[in-house]
Design the sequence.
């Protein structure tokens, strides 16, 4: 433990004068050859210095920007005083996955966007400090937290072991309920293990967070597809669960619906990343087949597109290209992910839209025909609508195309549960307490929202847990 520092004696002016600390990261050329983590984490000294920048606002706006309501000034104060384990414990009161969210949460548009220090300078690096205390806890803890609260005798099933499901499970376990999580894959974690590459979120980190969940008494059952192996009705009527939380995500990939999209060498980003991350295709000794393209085009501009294109580079591509129909500043991907991709020599083709996947005589991808775009009037999202420029078609040579333009609701569970009300896009409808049309059945995360962030799914899991607890007490 680092000795207590004189953070309490700093004036607001002195705190504001401290420059934002840097996060060390690996060399771009070297890191693009492997799947080791890019960011290296803060040192103890840098963490303390960065935490000292926090002004300890009495009405902390940053907390309102956090979907799970972490006591941000409180944990930053403890970091500034050198009490790293205390800071980690405080974060865990509201966040069951701090080592995860410290790495992948878009703090720059949430808590850090509301930081007062950011008005005239750089906001406090809340996300980096969250990661720091979580990693410190992992290395220095002597035990994991357990539940001391008496058992309620109530049973709850969580469908899906992704961010929403495991957050809800952890919260319910803390309340004394008996919780079982049912996961379709062979490993828990959901998008954390199948969608986010190891260079951004090491699987070891997710596995450790899952072990912490198990220490709370949560049972996790894998290789169970609710909607196929078991139904919601069976969980409640045959297996005796008093409530169910559906958090199976939105895993049905969207495609462009253009000619040639069925050629060999076209992947959805979901499949490409699942093969790589969950099934370990990046390892040379892996039995999981994957196409290691030499010239790879990834269509899309979000974090999934960044993950896919950076993965293709690490799988040996000599050129990896992002194809995006809007301008760079309109990309929905995190600024850090775009910056890291640029550092790793990813080629960006902005204001470009594919119109056809080109194939050779054996039906393998040989290229992508695209058209240049220009920005017109704003659309419903508030962004300027991309408009094709007539006569601007051109071709890009490639042997692999990865489509990363979004996902839809997987209909497997909802089609097997006719009583569930869904909207026109197939997402489950839930009220303000996240209760569905079936009494005792709640839902949250991407299956309700559509594709969103990890932390928003976690926020739904936390909200659902509180409402499920209230429901169980009344019933």
Sequence:
């Amino acid at each position: 433990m680092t000795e207590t520092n004189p953070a309490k004696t700093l004036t607001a002016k002195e705190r504001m004068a401290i420059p934002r600390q840097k996060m060390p990261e690996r060399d771009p050329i070297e890191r693009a050859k492997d799947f080791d983590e890019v960011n290296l984490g803060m040192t103890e000294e840098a963490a303390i210095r960065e935490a000292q920048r926090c002004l300890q606002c009495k009405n902390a706006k940053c907390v309102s920007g956090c979907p799970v309501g972490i006591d941000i000034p409180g944990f930053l104060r403890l970091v500034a005083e050198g009490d790293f384990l205390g800071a980690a414990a405080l974060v865990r009161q509201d966040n069951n996955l701090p080592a995860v969210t410290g790495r992948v949460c878009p703090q720059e548009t949430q808590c850090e966007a509301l930081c007062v220090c950011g008005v005239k300078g750089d906001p406090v690096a809340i996300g980096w400090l969250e990661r720091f205390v979580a990693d410190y806890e992992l290395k220095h803890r002597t035990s994991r937290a357990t539940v001391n609260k008496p058992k309620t005798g109530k049973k709850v099933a969580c469908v899906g072991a992704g961010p929403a499901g495991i957050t809800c499970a952890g919260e319910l376990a803390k309340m004394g309920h008996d919780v079982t999580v049912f996961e379709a894959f062979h490993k828990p974690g959901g998008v954390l293990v199948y969608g986010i590459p190891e260079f951004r979120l090491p699987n070891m980190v997710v596995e450790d967070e899952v072990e912490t969940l198990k220490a709370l008494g949560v049972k996790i059952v894998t290789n169970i597809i609710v909607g196929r192996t078991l139904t919601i009705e069976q969980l409640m009527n045959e297996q005796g669960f008093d409530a169910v939380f559906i958090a199976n995500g939105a895993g049905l990939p969207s495609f462009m619906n253009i000619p040639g999209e069925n050629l060999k060498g076209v992947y959805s980003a979901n499949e490409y990343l699942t093969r790589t991350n969950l099934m370990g295709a990046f390892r040379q000794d892996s039995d999981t087949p994957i196409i290691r393209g030499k010239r790879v085009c990834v269509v899309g501009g979000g974090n999934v597109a960044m993950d896919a294109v950076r993965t293709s580079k690490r799988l040996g591509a000599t050129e990896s290209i992002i194809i995006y129909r809007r301008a760079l500043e309109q990309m929905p991907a995190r600024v850090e992910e775009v910056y890291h991709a640029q550092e790793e020599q990813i080629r960006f083709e902005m204001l470009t839209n594919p119109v056809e996947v080109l194939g050779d005589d054996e039906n393998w991808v040989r290229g992508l025909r695209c058209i240049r775009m220009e920005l017109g009037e704003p659309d419903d999202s508030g962004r300027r609508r991309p408009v094709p420029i007539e006569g601007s078609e051109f071709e890009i040579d490639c042997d692999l195309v990865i489509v990363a333009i979004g996902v839809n609701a997987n209909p497997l569970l909802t089609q097997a549960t006719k009583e569930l009300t869904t909207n026109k896009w197939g997402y489950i409808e839930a009220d303000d307490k996240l209760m569905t049309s079936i009494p005792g059945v709640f839902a949250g995360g991407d299956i309700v929202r559509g594709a969103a962030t990890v932390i928003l799914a976690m926020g739904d899991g936390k909200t659902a847990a509180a409402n499920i607890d209230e429901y169980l007490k009344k019933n």
About this structure: Residues 1-5 have pLDDT under 50 and may be disordered.
